[in-house]
Specification:
With about 180 residues, the protein is of the alpha+beta class. The chain has one domain. The strands form two sheets. Strands 2, 3, 4, 5, 6 and 7 form a six-stranded mixed beta sheet that branches. It has a two-stranded antiparallel sheet with strand order 1-8. The longest helix has 11 residues. The mean pLDDT is about 85.
Length: about 180
């Protein structure tokens, strides 16, 4: 979907759209499913550009970071973008070689050269920020045994952890304790 900023030049424009974002496009291995993303908002003129305030709602399923069980999630929250003409943000030619530090305010601004702005990448960015990174099926999830793969939430595992021989040489350097 493209935003036509020109439609909001004279009066605010109410927007409502449903985005179908394939999970593969997000390249998140932990994402199992994603519902259509619902957006509703209002685009209005805000000198020198435009302001879009809205709300995103979606749900999905990710895998538990410890035991790989499906974990459902639901997200709903406010989003906001400020659109500014690109010519206002360009650096002077003399300063083009210098490093410029961006502030948090700079990161919230979307620049445009034309009144038509692609909206899908902005929505996908917000989805990326909202997908849980390390979801757990429950707070005390014990995960899978690294040796045999048993789900330790379901049954205890009889595996013994492997010994770490890397410290053996250092143990020989430690003085022996004597009984007094």
């Amino acid at each position: 979907m493209d935003l036509d900023l020109e439609k909001a030049l004279d009066e605010p424009l109410d927007l409502s759209h449903q985005f179908d974002v394939p999970g593969e496009r997000l390249k998140r291995g932990e994402l199992l499913s994603l519902s259509p993303v619902r957006f509703s908002g209002r685009l209005r003129r805000a000198e020198p550009g435009f302001l879009l305030d809205g709300r995103l709602e979606f749900e999905g399923t990710v895998v538990c970071a410890r035991c790989l069980k499906p974990v459902p999630f639901r997200r709903s929250g406010a989003v906001s973008w400020l659109f500014a003409p690109a010519h206002l943000r360009r650096q002077p030619a003399a300063a083009a070689d210098e490093e410029v530090e961006l502030t948090a305010k700079d990161l919230d601004i979307v620049t445009y050269d034309d009144f038509t702005v692609p909206f899908d990448p902005l929505i996908e960015e917000q989805i990326q920020l909202e997908i849980p990174m390390r979801a757990l099926c429950r707070d005390d999830c014990r995960g899978l045994c690294p040796m045999c793969g048993t789900d330790r939430n379901v049954a205890p595992c009889a595996c013994t952890p492997p010994t770490d021989d890397r410290w053996t040489a250092l143990k020989a350097l430690r003085p022996q304790e004597t009984d007094t």
